[in-house]
Amino acid sequence: MTLRGYRCCQYAGFTGKKMLAANSLFTTNPFALLSASVSPAIMQAYVVVMIILVAGGTLFDVVHKGSATYFFANWRDSKRRGRQQVGGGKIASLAVQSAVVDVLASGEFCNMKRRIAHLLGMYGFALYVVATIAMVFCYPTPGTPTPSYWPLLWWLGALMICVGGYWFWFFIRVDVAAEGQSPLRIIRADLFVLSLVISASLGLVWAYLQADGSAWSTVFLGLYLIATTVLFGSIPWSKFSHMFFKPAAALEKRVSKANGSAQNLPTLTRDDPEQRKRHSMELLQKAPLHMGLGIKREAPRHY
């Protein structure tokens, strides 16, 4: 064999080992590896505590802010002001539309970039949480082999969170894109997104270092636990609980449009003579619906 052929074989063997190691990384349950130093019972107890924090924080948020009271009061007012009755079948149809369009497809976002970033974070978070629970409770040790798809879903979910979260944080946030604020500026409204992205990022780094046998894995495990605890423990002060309120708000909005009350807002059409009269300029009274949207052709970057 020539020297060149030997080097090619050597390179192919090295590349094959790297691919095998990467494949092993993405198909290995990181929590099963952790069970060598941390009892599975402790890991399971931690997950249960996080679930309790989510439930308790959401209930506290509902009571403290009066979200449920406001929702039901607004629902009753909408029904009272409505020009027509909406039957149970129609409400069921609107509920399905809300679930598909407003929840699963995030139809409330007109900006496509923001919608994609939101969907990446939402579905990534769902995959990440479900895979974590499955691996911690069903396959906590190497003695119970983990199906390869669970670690793959865990990695995929965490990576989707990071892509959607960092894209939103550095390029889509309105105060950064339109007002020229620093991407490093942090306010309380950023608590949920920031803690979620940091938690997922630290989790990925910890899983990689642990699989590599690095001593730094313990440090990043601690940071991962701190960020995750902040994520689920800060619900009363973050926007985490909004994911539970938004479906109800979307349904109430659709019902209010169907019964004619429209939450006291003008309808989205100028065909209604009453809506045309709202404009003081005769030109706008006779203008088509899409008139005046030319400003949307240019991104708001005039800071």
Task: Record the SSE blueprint.
Layout: H1 3-26, H2 30-34, H3 40-65, H4 67-81, H5 88-104, H6 112-138, H7 149-172, H8 174-177, H9 191-212, H10 217-233, H11 242-258, H12 273-276, H13 282-285
Helix pairs in contact: 4-11, 5-11, 6-7, 7-9, 9-10
Write up this protein.
This protein has 303 residues and is mainly α. The protein has 2 domains: 29-264, no CATH class; 269-295, no CATH class. It is built from 13 helices and no strands. Helix 4 (67-81) runs parallel beside helix 11 (242-258), helix 6 packs antiparallel against helix 7 and helix 9 (191-212) runs antiparallel to helix 10 (217-233). The longest helix has 27 residues, at 112-138.
Short description:
With 303 residues, the protein is mainly α.
